[in-house]
Write a structure and sequence with these properties.
9% strand; 4 strands; alpha+beta; 282 residues
Length: 282
């Protein structure tokens, strides 16, 4: 039996102790409703049933033991490592990045800034926590039809649950909450900078990062997954990710990075077109 990425739609109201998910038994999609590890109901669902809407797991309830609750928080962070970014999944990108992949590169990008007016340590921490709520609610995409106000409410509820139920309002919890709120408010120079890193990272992930080696050939070993995104799906598929990110960058240094990235992308496309033309004539 294999679990599917989409949760099972609730056909009736379930008590908070129960969880509904989809799974596959052979060639049949099934709905599995369970409490802890004890299966309660399995029912076959035809393959032509539309993909269900997102169902959110119930919030964590404190056990009263600070150590146990802290470990629960550490464990929930794994979801950031395993959950793939929805935009890439929707575009059928093979082996798409996870949520934590995205945040990690943002943190390193922050460390690369030469802007002495920024608190770089704060920017690094802010990058690491800015999508933390997605460990609870997942990476919600606009096509899911969840209003922005509701998405913000769900994210704030998740952070509140982490801070109060799991981390017991500790100094570390309050630091995480403060950084997350500062990013969401988007008023400080650090929050605006990290938002620009978010935009740049999306474009960087989507671009074909081809580099020409010293011998004049494209070094495929350098390309990595970023190159595969456009190599496999083409500019027509991924252009919206560039249109919704690079033009909105405001920090001068990140703008320079974006311009360099755009130039690199154009060169790579030219090289690819030239190589395809040469191959067609041989």
């Amino acid at each position: 039996m294999s679990l599917l990425s989409s949760p099972l739609p609730k056909r009736r109201t379930l008590p908070s102790a129960f969880v509904a998910v989809q799974c596959r038994l052979g060639d049949k999609r099934c709905g599995l409703v369970f409490s802890q590890s004890r299966p309660l109901k399995i029912s076959a669902m035809p393959d032509d049933v539309p993909a269900p809407s997102r169902v959110f797991p119930p919030p964590y309830v404190s056990s009263g033991d600070a150590c146990e609750d802290r470990l629960a928080f550490f464990h929930i962070l794994e979801r950031l490592k395993t959950q793939k970014r929805t935009g890439w999944v929707d575009h059928k990108v093979p082996g798409p990045e996870s949520i934590s992949d995205h945040m990690y590169r943002m943190a390193v990008l922050a460390m690369c800034s030469s802007d002495t007016n920024l608190d770089i340590a704060k920017c690094v921490m802010m990058a690491v926590v800015h999508d933390l709520a997605e460990a609870q609610i997942g990476d919600i995409a606009p096509r899911e039809g969840i209003p922005k106000a509701e998405k913000r409410r769900l994210e704030a509820e998740a952070i509140h649950n982490f801070v109060h139920e799991m981390l017991h309002d500790s100094p570390a919890a309050k630091r995480i909450e403060s950084l997350w709120k500062e990013y969401e408010e988007g008023e400080s120079k650090e929050a605006k900078f990290v938002k620009d890193l978010d935009r740049f990272e999306v474009a960087c992930q989507g671009t074909l990062s081809a580099q020409v080696g010293t011998a004049g050939y494209v070094t495929d070993t350098f390309l990595g997954t970023a190159s595969e995104y456009e190599r496999n799906h083409g500019m027509q598929t991924l252009q919206p990710f560039f249109d919704s990110s690079l033009p909105f960058i405001r920090h001068p240094e990140v703008q320079q990075w974006g311009e360099a990235l755009s130039d690199e992308r154009k060169r790579a496309h030219t090289q690819r077109a030239s190589a395809a033309g040469a191959a067609a004539t041989t």
